[in-house]
Amino acid sequence: MKKRNLLLIPIILIPYVFLLTILTFFFGTEKIFFKFILEKIFQGNVWYLLGTFLICCIITFILSALYFIFSIVKKWNPLSQSKIIMIIKIVHIPAYILIFILGLILMITIFTFPFIILLFIFDCWLMLLTSLLLIASILNSIRNKTFKVKELIWLIILQFIFCADVISSIIFYFKLKKNYIVKEEIN
Asked: Of 13, 45, 60, 79, which has fewest CB within 10 angstroms of its CB?
């Protein structure tokens, strides 16, 4: 594992930290596991829990932005870059499913509507972060003249559509891998 991929650890973990935060917020006084988290780690203070989550989000955003900037400035290999981002998007699938199920459960009562909006905003934010990382890989592949802009513009557009972003990241990785194999055979 390359050191630069350490910048991506928070983005891998943040949807699961989000789920843990939401579930602890709702069940912190009822279920043993969440009660332990709320009382022992956050001294029974929900604001400490939410503040810690907000700090985690800020750290995730900063490290993702650094990864995006460094990948473009230092011209990282788009193949290895797209592979790790594809893996991240696949690892996020269970979290997206759980967040969706949680949103459906919260639709039962009108009083939890603000939480549904929060779930949607978090999903959009997370998709934006992972999509920007893949866009950096796409830009690097265009810079390396592996692909032309016209070939990849649809992949960039798909990065901002739920579910299509995961599929397009898989397609891009395998397309890029095939292109690298063909280049090696020619050389």
From this structure: 45
| Rounded CA separation 72/69 (Å) | 5
What would the two tokens of residue 118 be? 């929060």
φ, ψ of residue 44 in degrees (nearest 5)? 75, 10
* The two three-digit tokens of residue 34, written as one number: 């969440």
Which residues lie below 8 Å from residue 134, measured CB to CB, with a gap of 6+? Answer: 82, 85, 86, 89, 155, 159, 165, 169, 172
Structure tokens at 167: 């599929």
What one-character-per-residue DSSP string does 111-151 give? GGHHHHHHHHHHHHHHHHHHHHHHHHHHHHHHHTTSS-HHH
Which region, left, alpha or beta, applies to residue 145 given φ > 0 means left and ψ of -120 to 50 means alpha?
left
Q: Give me the phi and psi of 162, to 5 degrees please.
A: -55, 140
Instruction: Answer yes or no: are the C-beta atoms of 28 and 46 closer than 8 Å.
Output: yes
pLDDT digits 0-9 by tens, 35-72: 888 888 888 888 998 999 999 999 999 999 999 999 99
pTM above 0.70, yes or no: yes
Residues in the chain: 187
Nearest to 11 by CA among 61, 48, 49: 61
Contact 17, 95 (CB under 8 A): no
Structure tokens that stand for 14 in this block: 């943040």
CA distance 11 to 127: 10
